Amino acid sequence: MSTARHILLIIGGGIAAYKASELIRLIKKAGMTVRCVLTESGAQFVTPMTLAALSENEVHTTLWSLKDEAEMGHIQLSREADLVVVCPATANLLAKMAGGIADDLATTLLLATDTPVLAVPAMNVRMWEHAATQRNLEQLKADGIAIMPPDEGDMACGEYGPGRLPDPEAIMAEISRRLGDGSGTTLDTASELGPNPLDGQPAFAPDAHRPLHGRHVLITAGPTREPIDPVRYIANRSSGRQGFAIAAAAAEAGADVTLVAGPVHLPTPAGVMRVDVETAREMEAAVHAALPADIAIMVAAVADWRAAENADQKIKKKGDAPPPLKLAENPDILAGLANHKARPGLLIGFAAETENIAEHARAKLARKGCDWIVANDVSGDVMGGDENSVHIITAEGSEIWERLPKPEVARRLVEKISTTITEEN
Q: Where is this region: Phosphopantothenate--cysteine ligase (predicted)?
């Protein structure tokens, strides 16, 4: 069975549609297969024959093809893909997607698909900056659609500004990043581009706007599970929600985000590359494999201990006395990263505390060798709840953020990181 990735490319009706030909060539060169859906407007700029010759597949143009609906159907067309790419995504297409309109083949399959979707907008600068378009983009992000921001530059209409389609090479790099970076890491593509945990919070403005653009941010989240036998394990109550919210906020700020996640049932934030692990040692290996990184935020609640011996079979009761459980210490991922030869420029640790929050956090800052400690009071329902209260401890001092929704904590933390990075440069 072929393991080649499958791309469904939807081509909207804008002058930038001519770049679709080069994008198809790059997709094929990467060893992926590509099927094209060409809108009626898109056919004004590029022909089905050209796309068919380049993709080596039939080009689909209408919802009313008896042959296509009998043999494949618009729903099956999208479900065979690993990623649906809308390029160029015109203002009209974005508006229809945001409104749930399904009046042609492209919009119908977009409404019917459960496959991750990447939209690459291209339009006149005035259209891009219009309140309606920005409102539609926010709705699409909230719906879990990944948006690749347009470039800024000269346009075919003679104007200058944001709205220009990125170069095909950049789009191809974004496609590859979302399907896996080629390092052998297996990603769960069914959940890779899930809803944004920022829960409707205002997005960072485009461009400058995107203060972490070009930065690689490495984040850990969730608990680890340390097996005792095939049915039992040592774990904790971490939900991963704070770490996932920080990953979403960092991606919104323009960063390339790698999220190393323990065993949690959360959708991957849009624009984030996720690596799933279970144990502390697996998390450590994944963190080191993701280096180098400009910024590392170690949010995960890593188990301090693991069973020294993992039984191959379920441990049975023998008499009234419980069997002894010998423990071994897990690696200290944060301290190890502080001493790593590829230490991130800004290293942030998290501390889950129930008392003497600031005092314990200052001690951890000195002990671990990181730059900041974000200490959160996990008494009550914090580990599984919607809100968090944190102390930010640095060498320069500390600040307290009273109880806030976790998405807001994430956004404020990313803003503080962005400001710090900017000031240092």
A: 217-425
